[in-house]
Amino acid sequence: MGAVAVMFPELDPVALETGRVAFAVMALGAVALIAASLVVARRLAGTLAPWAWGGVTFVLSQLLRAPFLAVVTGAVVGGSQPAAMSPAWIVLVTAASLSAGIFEEGSRALILATAGRRIRCTEPGVAYGLGHGATEALLIVLAPAVAAIVLVGGILDGSLTANVPAETAASLDQAATLFATQTVGISLIAIVERALAMALHVILALLVMRIVVRGGGRNAIARRLALPIAIHASVNLVAVIGAQLFGVLVAEGLVALAVANAARIYWFLPKDPASREFAET
CA 132, CA 112: separation in Å to the nearest integer? Predict the structure, then answer.
């Protein structure tokens, strides 16, 4: 196929520029969250090692999770995109939420039981959770926002649309349409969501740390991980399904309530690692 010059007559350059500003706000917000997590982690733990291990944990969990999601997606929908709230969509969202809990909390337990054995009290535990959340923000908010800023700039100055291979023209057109719909409000909601996610990761990191410290063998630890896995999966489900049913603003409010509930659960669990953390069934 030959190369073509792609034109976007239906797209308003002002809308694209507004989208670029909105993505810049998103990027700056993500940078602020990541920088704040570094400062807090350093002050609490006296070192950035726990923060770094949190980042390693997130990357490890996603490397392990990606093949599972690929298999489930292929089995449920093949190459098609299911409609929101359809049975196939619900299956995929449930699988994605449950796998996030299983792989992220499982990776936390693995790291804390091996390389992160020095993370055994609240301060480094908080730093560890912050590192997990900050790395997630880096990969799913900051990196895409920076990429969008670069792409919008290329579309506006024409450097990206000149001599584009014909087979990529449709994808570029779709991307340009999406970029033009981005607003500062959407970007701010994304930053609030990342802040809530970071708070959740801190709570779950402390909970998993307590489970690992209590010990009792692999089977006992695996059983106790059911609680953080359930919390993690349920918050993800609330975020995704809530956004479809009630809109993103209400969904973020529901997520905030779910995170507060997770904090309440952690707070009222016995704090002595030698005591019973919760009833084992």
Answer: 13
- 177 burial class (0-12, 13-18, 19+ CB within 10 angstroms)? middle
CA distance 21 to 188: 12
Token digits for 173? 């057109």
Exposed e or buried b per residue across 115-127, where buried means at least 16 C-beta atoms within 10 angstroms of its C-beta: ebeebeeeebbbb
Assign 3-state DSSP to the chain and report helix, strand, coil percentages, each to 5.
80, 0, 20
Residue whose tokens read 């929101």: 84
Vertex 55: Cα angle to 215 and 69 (nearest 5): 85
pTM value?
0.90
The residue written with tokens 């917000």 in the block is 29
Q: Measured between alpha carbons, how far is 57 from 34 in angstroms, rounded to an integer?
A: 16
Tens place of pLDDT per residue across the chain (281 aa)? 444 455 555 567 888 999 999 999 999 999 999 999 999 999 999 999 999 999 999 999 999 999 999 999 899 887 778 899 999 999 999 999 999 999 999 999 999 999 999 999 999 999 999 999 999 999 999 999 999 999 898 888 877 766 666 666 677 778 888 888 999 999 999 999 999 999 999 999 999 999 999 988 999 999 999 999 999 999 999 999 999 999 999 999 999 999 999 999 999 987 754 444 433 33
Question: How far apart are the C-alpha atoms of 234 and 140, rounded to whole Å?
Answer: 20
Judge contact between 225 and 105, C-beta under 8 A.
yes
Nearest to 266 by CA among 207, 201, 184, 202: 207
Run of H or E including 178:
helix 166-181
